[in-house]
Structures are given as C-alpha cells and as structure tokens.
Design brief:
This protein has 284 residues and is α/β, with parallel strands linked by helices. 44% of the residues lie in helices and 12% in strands. Among the domains are: 46 residues; 147 residues, 2-Layer Sandwich (Nucleotidyltransferase, domain 5), CATH 3.30.420. A hairpin with a 7-residue loop joins β2 and β3. The longest helix is centred in the C-terminal third of the chain and has 31 residues.
C-alpha cells in the first residue's frame, strides 16, 4: 500500500486488501522499538568486526570479541543476527589419524599437563611447527605463543623444517623477556625440539623445557589451536604462488591482525580490572 499510495487511493486499496485505512496510517506513524534499534546498532558493529576479520569470525568468536568490548549481547542473539544478515565464519577442518605413542625422552617432563592457563606473561609458552603449501613448495612456520597474553612473541619461517627454524622462533620470543622471567616452553617431541642445539639454547637462557606425549595432540592443544586459526582464517582461503607470498600473508596475520587484537584485549581487561570502565547492566 505504501509503495502504491501515489497511484491509488488508500481507501480503495484498503477495501481490496480487506484492511482498515486507520491501520495503515497507524503503521505509518509506528517507530521501531528499542529492541529493533539496539539490534540494528549491534548488527552494524558485527558487520564491522566481520569485515575486519576478513570474514573469518563466526558467531562464537564474534560474541567473544563483543564481550571484550563490553557490548551487551548473548551468544544466541549474535548467532541470530549473523544468520539473518547472511554472515558466517570459516569452519574448522577436521583431521583424522595419528602417530604411534612412544615414551617421553629422559629428563624431560610434561610440566603443563594440559593446563593451558597462565596468570602472568612470559611464564608458560607453547611452540609448534606447521607447513603451508605453495606452488613453489612447502613453507614451514614455527610459532611461540604466550598462554597468558595469547600473543605470538616469536616466529620464524623457512623452506626447510630444521632445528634452526625452532631456534629462531625461540630467540625472537626471548628478546621480549625480562630478567627474572621463569619461562616454561612446552612442545611436542619433534626432532627439532629434542635436538641438542635446542636443549642447549633453553638451558643457556634458563628456560625450562616441557614436552607432551608423542601422538597426543591434546598435550599441545594451545599451539595447535593457533595454527588452526591461522589456516582457517588465511591459509585455506588462498593459493600461494610463491613462498614469499605466503611469508607476507603469515606476517600480516600475526603482526597486523592476531597480536594487535590480543593486545587490545589485554588493555580492555586491565581497564576493567582497574575499574576504569563500568560493566553494563543490560541483558543480552
């Protein structure tokens, strides 16, 4: 009726559609409810975050990001708004299979025991290596993640999966340590981490080595989780012609997306704990 009101009389259309003219005029004066306005505002921020994440954030990660921004909402509300707007993230690719279990090398224990929580930075680190396919061949990436800040303080990339790959990542992370930090560096039992050079580097810098069991990915789930996000958000969505192209994209993800995002979370959390922001009392 509203679309055709300049072509036909409102009363005529009302009779044809079996509705009252007063109902039409009441609808014209109707304003959006507070809930509708709040949903529109929330959806606008969701679109911004979705675009910032390069379309990788699904409802759970979107709700987590909104929570850190102290925007009142519930997981179901975020999922509903994203579904109605046609926004979705990138699903995780599941892998099956595993390796045969062996005993842990002598003198090294699993100090984390799958406890990936840390109350201070530079205390619990995890390290792992993954591979990225390119048309030029594989690019191997080693990354060290701090379990407190969730940032990646050290990383390295190479066309060969050698012990130097792990050494460079650890050295880069150690540059950000302060004197007196008691670091536990946890890994799997890959040959890069059991090598003599790697073990001597950790001892020289007073870093305690920790290792999980062979063939049990859950023992190093935190490092696996970071690489799963990297592959879901970037690697699986692109085809790299050269290793240099893959290097640039991995650098961009770590230094321009992941680490800054984790830093913003730390700042928000610190401000909240210091009472500099008022927690919202509205329900999501």
């Amino acid at each position: 009726m509203d679309r055709c009101r300049f072509s036909y009389p409102v009363r005529l259309m009302s009779r044809c559609l079996h509705v009252s003219p007063s109902g039409y005029y009441a609808w014209k004066k109707h304003r959006p409810s507070r809930r509708a306005v709040a949903n529109a505002t929330l959806l606008e921020r969701i679109r911004e975050l979705h675009e910032t994440s390069d379309g990788t954030f699904g409802a759970p990660r979107m709700w987590e990001e909104l929570t850190f921004e102290e925007i009142p909402c519930s997981p179901n509300r975020v999922a509903r708004l994203m579904r109605q707007a046609g926004l979705q993230g990138i699903p995780i690719r599941r892998r099956r299979g595993g390796r045969r279990k062996k005993s842990r090398p002598p003198g090294i224990e699993d100090l984390l025991m799958r406890d990936f929580n840390a109350d201070r930075k530079n205390h619990k680190w995890v390290i792992d290596i993954t591979e990225i396919p390119t048309d030029e061949g594989k690019l191997y990436v080693a990354a060290v993640q701090d379990l407190c800040t969730k940032k990646v303080p050290g990383w390295s990339m190479s066309s060969r999966q050698t012990r130097d790959l792990a050494l460079q990542a650890v050295l880069m992370a150690l540059l950000q340590c302060e004197e007196g930090d008691e670091v536990i560096l946890h890994s799997d039992q890959g040959s890069q981490f059991t090598s003599g050079d790697y073990q001597r580097l950790l001892k020289r810098h007073h870093v305690t080595c920790s290792m999980g069991s062979v063939g049990t990915c859950a023992d190093n789930a935190a490092a696996e989780s970071f690489f799963a996000l990297l592959k879901r958000d970037r690697i699986h969505r692109r085809r790299y012609a050269t290793r240099a192209e893959a290097r640039r994209d991995v650098f961009d993800y770590i230094e321009r997306f992941h680490n800054p995002r984790m830093q913003r979370r730390l700042i928000r959390q610190a401000r909240k704990e210091a009472g500099l922001t008022q927690p919202s009392t509205e329900s999501g």
